[in-house]
Amino acid sequence: MGVPTVRSVRAATAEAFSSSCSAEPAILDLSVVAKRAEAQGVVSLDLALPDGELLPAWLPGAHIDVMLPDNVVRQYSLCGDCRNNRAWTIAVLRETASRGGSRYIHDHLAVGDRMQVSRPRNNFRLVDAEHYLFIAGGIGITPILAMARQIAAQGKPWTLVYGGRTRGAMAFIDTLRALRGGQIHICPQDECGLLDLPRFLDRHEDGTKVYCCGPEALIDAVEKRCSDWPIGTLHRERFAPSTKGAALPKGAFEVELARSGRRLVVPPDTSLLMVLEEAGYTITNSCRAGICGTCFIRVLSGELEHNDDVLSDAEREAGDGLLVCVSRAKSGLLVLDL
Amino acid sequence: MVDVRNVRGGNGLDGISAEVDEILDAVFQRTRQASEDFFVAFDRNPDPKVLSGWLEPRCWREIDYVFLLNEQIRRYGLGFKRNHITLLAKQSFQEAEHYEMVGRAIESLGGTVPTALPTEVEPWSSFLWDCLDRHPLAAIAAWFTSETSASGSFEPTFRAAERHGLDEVMRIYKRIETDEKFHTGLGRQILSTYARTDGDRQEILRAMRGMRDLAWKTFTPESVALAKMAS
Q: Cβ(B224)–Cβ(B38) under 8 Å?
């Protein structure tokens, strides 16, 4: 017996890596086939494969990563009709503090230009319900538009509460009004003030699911109103990772559980597994030391810090799962398929 | 699915890892076949006592692991890193839980939980303890092989439990299946971390080969029949 020599297993080949992934390309090269002004400061783009081939299927709530010059990557919700597999539509708000993403799209991108985008990912899926209450703030209307279109097509009842700074800055109002079966409340702040959340979120109604997308203050207010509602009732998507994360102590991070939209904070000295267990989740596990691999959970987004002893290099590089007993987020937010 | 054969450790098994994997594959297959054969026989005669007779050697193996792992820690533990002492102790605790759980299953089938070494388990147990006397890593190599052998019995057990509505057996063995991923991963990690010399590796192979030839035997229908005759 000797002194242990920890072997650094760095033998993953490109072949091994690609074999763990889909055979389909992860990045698509699309053409801009239409660009429209949808509201003050909002343009929409229709994107299609240059040869007119069918695009991958998606469902409302999905977003794509858009690769822009200078290694800028931005996420945009798909807001078109998910039954149209010839073109995807995104809508982009010109951010006043833009670091190049929205400014480039507004000022430089033109019909006929090419852009690289990821396949759709969906952390904000619609679940079955008898009635839907959609709450959108500003450009947060984009995933909600795709959802409302689908629910309207299914003939189910839905309500939309849509706020924005001014009516002229609120995109897709006419499109929404043309959909069937919905009660639509358009609430520009300069006319109505802040959204009247107590009116719409006074109490939990059985059979109703709430979908909310918008700025952090809106999401926080909706979360507060729904804090004692049954788990799985409220689903939300933020424009950006919660800034609450910035207040977390060093080594702490936040996880979002995609199926319920629930968010949990993992303190620096506590494992993600323990936090999930304390929150009432039963996670299969045995060693709690990163050896058995039984607590593997799929990750939908986020940067991972793998601390286990068993995932192969290819599995680590794929970045689509972690062992929750020992592994953590490198930074920011992890979205788990849970 | 995560493969515990990828577990990171040291380079102690370099040079013998192909044979290590061959032995593991062989013992897994032999045990799976023996278990399949047992459940074919059980399907013809689904006597709960027969099943409890098949579980009794499993049950003894669990408690024998408890004794052995504690002795392993006592004799050799301070040569290991502290986290490996903790993990061996954790494995020992889980084996004790398995003894309790399998014991409950045996009682629910009308059998008797073994409190002394059953005759049909003697060769397995003797070999395991001899390994402990020979070399600090030999018993680990032996139980690593034996635990891999047990994992070959799971799928046949689950299918049979479903066919016969043995929900408790199913539940218990699902839990054991999870824990054995830990045990086999730990076994491999310890061997690859602490084996350094060719002598270490020869002892590991000797223990694994010996256990390969023994571990599957108590899973056969013949073993249960012999045990019944002996009692």
A: yes
A166-219 per-position pLDDT tens digit: 999 999 999 999 999 899 999 999 999 889 999 999 998 899 999 999 988 898
Residue A1 belongs to some domain of the structure: no
Q: Which of residues 269-308 of A touch B (CB under 8 A)?
A: 284-287, 289, 291-294, 296
Q: With contacts defined as CB-CB under 8 Å, which chain B residues touch A293?
A: 1-4, 181, 185
Range of the domain at A78: 9-13+23-122
Whole-number Å distance between alpha carbons of B39 and B55:
12
The span from the first CA to the last CA of chain B, in angstroms, equals 42
Q: Residues with Cβ < 8 Å from A236, sequence gap 6 or more?
A: A124, A211, A212, A213, A219, A222, A223, A261
Rounded to the nearest angstrom, the minimum Cα separation between B165 and chain A is 23
| A272 vs A254: CA distance, rounded Å | 10
Let me know whether A86 and A55 are in one domain: yes
ipTM reported for the complex, 2 dp:
0.90
Tokens of A100: 């190049």
Q: Which of A79, A100, A122 is the last residue of a domain?
A: A122
End residue of a domain, out of A84, A101, A122: A122
- Domain co-membership, A182 together with A210: yes
Q: Please, what's the largest Cα pairwise distance for chain A?
A: 78
For B31-69, the pLDDT digits (tens) are 999 999 999 999 999 999 999 999 999 999 999 999 999
Task: Tell me which amino acid residue B23 is.
Answer: I
Q: Where are the alpha helices (DSSP H) in B114-166?
A: 122-134, 138-151, 154-164
- Contact state of A1 with B195 under an 8 Å Cβ cutoff: yes
The reply to whether A118 and A145 lie within a common domain is no
CB B25 within 8 A of CB B110: no
Domains: count for chain A: 3
Q: How large a percentage of chain B has pLDDT more than 90?
A: 94
DSSP designation for A56: P
**Regions of chain A short of the pLDDT cut 70:** 1-26, 70-73, 97-100, 239-247
DSSP annotation string for A105-169 = HHHT--TT-EEEEEPPEESS-----SEEEEEEEGGGHHHHHHHHHHHHHHT--EEEEEEESSGGG
The answer to pTM > 0.80 is: no
CATH code of the domain containing A179: 3.40.50.80
